[in-house]
Here is the input.
Amino acid sequence: MFQVFSDFASWLIYSLIGLSPDTRLGESLHFFVEDTTKIFALLVVMIYVIALLRASLNVEKVRDYLAGKHRFFGYGMGAVFGAITPFCSCSSIPVFLGFTSAGIPLGITMAFLITSPLINEVAVLLLVGLLGWKFTAMYILIGIAVGILGGMFLDAIGAERWLQSFAADALKKGRENQEGLVTEPEEEQKLTLKERHEFAKDETTEIFGRVWKWVFIGVGLGAALHGFVPDGWIEAHLGDRQWWSVPAAVFLGIPLYSNATGVIPVMESLIVNGLPIGTTLAFCMSTVAASFPEFILLKQVMQWKLLATLFVVLLTAFTLVGWFFNYVPLM
Here is the structure.
């Protein structure tokens, strides 16, 4: 299925441009062209198809559904909704306030916000195409588990007391409204096929416009690693499953920033270059969910104590994930 992209890259780089496949530049550019065209094709086709299926999904429905659920059930549903809704750190503030205003416990909200940048439909599709179903399923389960456990822990320690005052007031008011406010259910509006097509087209255009640059950045970094990093260098420095290599990879990912879409080609290249799966997962999850830009945004709704606690929770979780998959056989 994906051979056409490899053939196109070979024709462009080796035949038309005339680079040799034995050179690092030729190998790197071939990797870049093949993965970029493959990812863009998946983006356009699959985002459109998925958008047709989720044309009626919106944040308000997710929020209202979670508001009425039992606390422990809510952690799981919050993480699952985070996995299937296309939010990233740039949209974390309005989503956070929307959930707190509905009276949803902080842990459920955090389960949603932790999982959402780690997993989305684009990332899942790309992972399937690049690394296969087994790795994709593993990645999804890890992301959901981190969201659930992180949310449960934050509720257990009463972390909501460390919200900024306006966010805490919104949460309190939302809880008061849950029992006293009764609203008439809105009549479900059924979209026509044309309306769904328009929604899917707009969704494809919007998401593609938002992530294409991250695809170029991610594939570019992956191509550089694939073509120019000396053979065995990564494996020699971080690939021997030393206990310190996983936390080192986690801290290395913090200053960087990417979304799940952009980090997947980097993940593929790191694995190809010999980095263990656990170390690779720890690095990439840190880059996506524990980066400085996201925490700068979250400072608007969280006090420093909550930010620091969340930071430690994520770093600990990613380190444990890395150690687990480095030392436990997957087969």
Observations:
- Residues 99 and 109 are 6 Å apart (CA to CA).
- The mean pLDDT is 76.
- The chain has 16 helices and no strands.
- Residues 193-228 form the longest helix (36 residues).
